[in-house]
Amino acid sequence: MTMDNEEGEEGLERLIPVNWQNLGIGYRELLERLEDPSLDGKDIEEQDEGGILVAGVGKAGYDITKKSEEWRRGYYGVLMGAANTAEHLDDWVNDKTRDIWFPKNQMRGPSNPKPKPIKVGSPPPPKEENCEKAYDPPEKFYMRILTTKGFTEKQRVDAALAYAAWLDFKKAPEAAMEMYKWAIDISTSSDSSSSLIDPNTHTLYINAGPPSENLLNTSTALAIHHATNSEISKSLPIFLSILRARKNLPAPKESMIDTLIAEEVEAPMWKTVWNFLKETLSPPAYPPAPSDGTSSPFRDSKELCEEAVLMTYIGEILYTSNAGLKSKEDGLAWTREAVDISEVELRKKRGLDKESKRTCKSCLEVGLGNWQRMVGNLAEEERLKKSNGEGPKSGWLGFGTKVETTGRWEAEESVEVKWDERLGFGIEFEFALATLPLGTEDPEPEQGHTDCELNVQWHIVNALKPKGFRIASQIQWERDRKAWENGDLDTEPDPIDILWMVKHDDTIQFPTAQVGTYKWYKVEICTPALAFSPWNLRHVWDLLRIITRRYRLNCNQSCGLHIHVSTAKKEFTLDILRNLMGLIFTFERQLEQCHPSYRIHSNSFTFPLRDHGNINQNFGPGENFSCSDRNWKEEWMLDRQQKGLSHKLPPACSEIDSLAAIFSAMSKAELVKKFESDEDLRLGYNIGFLDEPYPDSFKRTIEFRQHQSTTKPEFIECWLSIYCRLVDVARQTAGASNGEKVFRRFLLDHIGGSVDDFGLVMLLVDLGLMKEAEHYSMQMANRWDVRPPRRSMQCLDSGSM
Description:
This protein has 29 helices and 16 strands. It is an alpha+beta fold and 801 residues long. The protein has a domain at 8-188.
């Protein structure tokens, strides 16, 4: 259970499916206990003899002023949680004869002549005459908060806004408007002045002084209400008045620490690690009381993010107002500024708490998305005018042939946002896809997946193209390529024109338990080369959401998830590659803890560098790492097998010598050969695309192959962030003499260390990846297959001496 109602629902549903029925019962029992005078409800009082009754809702709230602040805050959290649960259970009914809850659309009766089929194995659907509403309506809990004596102004305002948002969702804008007015009355009740807001237009007065946090939030919610109900003439003035008010907020009081450079106030690394471990392992203290919202906020980083949110709303309203090209350009300008502010605030090392970062990141994602769509639409209109002959028809002096020019919005569409130019990435998703043979009954009809045998690649392409994905199937690509080679196609197929690709992968296996039920296909979906940005990540998550809802996917142990990382349009230099491979080689054992053991030891396509890379193998006499005799090696391994000894070849040199060999490489081709394997297998890290000369002029990336297959965005994003960070560190330290010395010293200090002494979580903390450290600490704590500590490479097994 969580009291963070802004992120609790999203966070719970992202991690595990929420059982709203059990949650509702739990909240009901909690409320009974908290309101029972013989249990936790001592000292709560009725506000009138016999209690106040509210029409259509029931009993009003209590007087809880004698209870402690912590109790009142917990009681408020339970009421808000119950209201949120009631919203999810609003369309559920209870079969009184069996005391079983069902969605209302499964009920059989006159009001629902076509009930939705129930899941196989579930109890039979209820009859309408046996049903009653399963849970109390949300307004019961919201009104309980609004009529309780003892809650803070902010708590009552938040409840009123949540109730108004619920009424908006239920298509009751008039009732929602009355609730927004009530929220405004609450937010102005603590101020002696009644001239903060215009009672008719609800805009904030410029010269009335700084408004309270509650009034700012309430006015913003009211403006959003008007905008969602297509009342732009009402919403835009409110947004503009709120923005003026926020820009006029007082500046925060500056302390001595605020005048220092960020690096000068950072705690030592040992203290950072210690604080992280202490917060992870020890129970947290009860959080202090939050602000009651009656005071005016300072114009700090958090408020700047709120200003960016307002600019995003204003930009969207102006762009969609159908007031002509000028209005669209103004909307785009507002959106640009919102993106710039969000970017600047997110890059700051101090000033934003967790909630503010979430707000700023969300604003940046929405702003980038709006920006791309706005520019794309304007560019499309420009191209359409050009194709209709409305563009320029002559040269600069008015004569001569038509000059082909790139329009203003086409040019802006081709310019990447500077924030997105840091690194590039691509992802390869592998999974088995199940379809039903023709004439077979669907064992899971309620899931809504595709129910018949199909041509999978083309079907996926046709499902994604209408959603805006430029995608093609491998089958069609190969046919077009062959047609071009035979002279039947005028233009050579270019991968850049395709972007997304649906392929077949023979390494994928089918789940044996379901082979007889479905017809299976081996599917791989490849993203295009993308800039590492929230917008592009969300684009990938959109694809995952579509295919997981439409198709039956199986991510078994034969499936993997590969990412490619590049330095975008800049060269992957030798210095960067040496730094990166030194970093990966040093901490390979720590990075292996991200994955289950079968991806490391049982998959012939993802073996570790230290165990199977040429850099560590002594295949024969000589000092050349890249030279081996395959026949000699096979005979050597057969001899060891007959003697019952380990099949692993001994390392050619110590770990420190191997690290020195990495940094002494004179070319990228030499490094590529060191990190290949002359055995009949593939390694978890593939730098072959950087060989000299380039084997693929289009793909100049490093491939990371060890992650298990998944369609969960949070898992993919954490893993992608780690390796993008490794590439970024390698790039930042390349060519900087002082930075490179510190970097190599860091590697030498840890090259022979134990994973027990310096594990994955501590490495991620050192890299500044706190979110990823928290994620993998939880994953490792819940995994049964965490591998035992590995022996150092210098400890040779007894049979190799």
